[in-house]
Structures are given as C-alpha cells and as structure tokens.
Amino acid sequence: MKSSFSFLSTVLSFLGLYQTSLIEDHGYELKTIDHLHMIRSPHLYDGRDYVNTIGFTPEAKAATIYIANNDLEPIHDDKLSLAQIYNTLCEMEGLEPEDMRWITFDVIDDEETNAAIANIHENRGIDRLDEVEILPSDLEWDPIVRTKYYRLMQMITTQLPQKIYLRHYLYSSDDNRELVIFTNCIYFAFASPDDAISTAHSGWPFDDQDQRETMFAEEQDNEFSDDSEGSESSDVSVDHEDLGGSESFDTFVGHEGHGGYKIVGESDVGGGSEVDQGSEIDQGSIDFEGSQENDEANSRWFSLRPESPLAHPQV
C-alpha cells in the first residue's frame, strides 16, 4: 500500500512539473504561491502585466479568475488561450475542470458590469455592499449572462451555473492603510441549489481571503517595483501631495470606470485605518464614475501609474 501511494505521488508530481513546463515552454512566466498562479507573457506589454492570475481552493473545488487579459495579448505562435491555461492549472492542482463547483471573477475595468450590479442592488432596495443571490428564474439573471464574465466562464466549462452570487472585496495595502480598493465579485455556483448556501444562512462554502491578500500584495509589488530600465515611472509614491494636497483620496479613482475599484481615504472607512471585510463604508465613496479610455492591461493599480491621466487628478 505504501509503495502504491509513493508511486501515485511521484506520478502526480511528474504531471505537475510537466504541466508547468507546458506553460513555460510557450514562453510564459509562471509564479505559483500555494494555489495561486500568476502568469506573464513577454508579448503583453513586455511582460510588465499579468496575462492571468488564477487561484484555486481545491477542497471546495473552487477557482477564482482574478485577472484575464488573454484578449489583450497579441496573436503569436505560442499563445495560449484562457481555457488552455485554466485547464493546465487544473491538472497541476489535480482537479477536473468539469467537476468544479465554483468559478469566480473579479470585475476589473468594466463600467457596464458595475452599473448592472449597482442596478440590481438598487432594484432590490438593498445596500450596495450586501450579498445578492440570483436564480435562473430571477429577472437579474439575464444582465449577468450578458456580461463578459459569463462568456469567459463558458470558455472554461460546459457546466451551467445553478446560482449566481454577487459579492465584493475590499483590497487594502499593508504599506498604506488609507488605501482601500473596492471590487465587485461574481460567483458562479455549479453545485446543487441545496449546496450553494448563502452567507446569510450558515457561512460561505470556502474562504479565499488569504489568497486574495497574497494576490493583491503581489500585484502591488509588481506595479511599484523598480525593475523598469531607466524609467522613473517605477518609483511611485502615493501621498497627499500626489493628489494635489488633498486631505482625502475621495477624488482618486481608477480607469475605465475603475472597473469596480474606488480608492477611498481613511475617513471613508469606519474604525479608523484598520480595514477588513466587516468595515462600514460611506456609500458616496463607491460611486461609479465616468470612464477613461486607454490601452493598458486590466490592473487595479493603473490609476497609480504616473503615465495615467488619473494619477494626479485636478482637485
């Protein structure tokens, strides 16, 4: 029995290494931290931005697509699609793509989807930070089906979701606790309706907070690194002087409708500078504002880059 287990472990380890080399053989750079996988391509902005950031919670058969920039990567001989990358990562994790019970997307740079989500909350007469459960028979089902996230979900599974949940996450910086980034999250549940239980009842089926914090820290390091050659743009500091002496970050927003992200000041978050999922937020600080067109890859940190017209807003 012991030898059989050892052999199985060796085979699984070999398969994982093979799948890793498959991604890297196509010229991609893969960085893995536990079950979080971050992938760059030299063909996408010289490897400065992630093509994909995908995390897994194996015990819950859950996958979270934090970043999907595959459509922005130029066509080349070694290009991998989102489905190819996702399927490869599933194999590395020992998961079957068609057995996944949850597929989640962060909403980035998508003013239309954010507006649809805001309308759903408004029509239900609930707070914008409240969780929403949507059934196929609900009127709100179609607006979510029309989003790009439903299409992306269809690219990586043939399953049909039984429920859709709308939630949010508050990303915060360890270096600057005044910096809080709000994002909408869309959860597609493929479990039976009895298994997909809302937090309003007995708790969320899986916990991805640690993974999200790790992902956000990696993104932050990526955006503010000093790796760029001879460029002063990598030396970015965000303080009140950068915001024209403003005493608040209220006017400092992301790009393309900030994709669900709003950078708010300490004054907007209850409980001082300590920010967590239970924080109370001034509703006026999460308004969805006008878009700013650009060609950059989806990034929750774009607005902090000096080349962004929103990096130094007029206040």
Automatic annotation (TrEMBL):
Keywords: Signal. Residues 216-232 have a biased composition (Acidic residues). Residues 1-23 form the signal peptide. Residues 216-315 are annotated as: Disordered. This is Uncharacterized protein. It comes from Ceratocystis fimbriata f. sp. platani.
